[in-house]
Amino acid sequence: MKNKSSRPAIADTDANIxxxxxxxxxxxxxxxxxxxxxxxxxxxYDFSGKTIVxxxxxxxxxxxxxxxxxxxxxxxxxxxKDGKRFSAKASVSELKKWVGSLGQERSV
Length: 108
Fold this sequence. Notes:
Layout: E1 22-28, H1 36-44, E2 51-57, H2 66-70, E3 79-86, H3 92-100
Parallel strand pairs: 1-2, 2-3
């Protein structure tokens, strides 16, 4: 069972988040949840007013409640877009099509 309070350290906390309005966050998903290091990343920066777009890779698990589980790790003014799971064999055209559709996706 995953320890939800575990927060592994991240090596680099110097990303210049302030320069971006939209940040894509990707991770391998297992058992329908993001690894806790993603919480650590989100908690290390100020995402106020930013849009965070999640996407993941997995052999079978879907996104589950990843967006809702990551929500407490950012400020209330941050928007987390519902994510999408891709297989390891996702094509460039599939990724481009998804990015093009983001204006129609709902947020949590």
